[in-house]
Amino acid sequence: PDELESLASYDLDEPTRHAFTPLDDAALEPLAAAIGVSADAAGASAPMTPFVVNTLGAMQGGAVATLIARAATEAATAETGEPTVCVDLAVNYLSLGKHGPIRAVPRVLRRGPGWFVVAVEVRDAGNDDRLMTVARAVAVLPADEGAP
Predict the structure, then answer these.
(1) Which residues are CB-contacts of 19 (< 8 A; sequence separation ≥ 6)?
(2) Helix or strand (DSSP H, E) at 37
(3) pTM for the full model?
(4) Order of all β-strands in the sheet with 38-40
(5) What is the pLDDT along the chain (148 residues), one digit of tens a residue?
């Protein structure tokens, strides 16, 4: 009962905004290394290892999101020639990736002064390139982290 009372105190009519500090790829390197990420302008990939497997025997969602963010920044960096930072992700998980390697392939959709909108498809290469996830990412030049 006490838990229900505390939940009732939240005003669900008011939106909540959470601000997260973007991390550059250097700060994510230990995680990317643990996942086994390899990346270039054509995308990012990772093998299926015990580190990334969830209880369903599939690559867990955070590892998939890490691949998406890396693929987006690599594509934006290739376009601008300067390092970029992923500041936003909208991810739609469609199916489980259980075989691997898992590959995230980016495509720059829009570009503005210091920002990029990137579409990313994630596929399970070991399962006939089955489409697992589609996402949109925003990558920005670090000086423009407040860009839309």
Answers:
(1) none
(2) none
(3) 0.80
(4) 38-40, 43-46, 102-112, 115-124, 130-140, 85-93
(5) 455 555 555 555 555 554 555 555 566 678 888 899 999 989 999 999 999 999 999 999 999 999 999 999 999 999 999 999 898 999 999 999 999 999 999 999 999 999 999 999 999 999 999 999 999 999 999 875 554 4
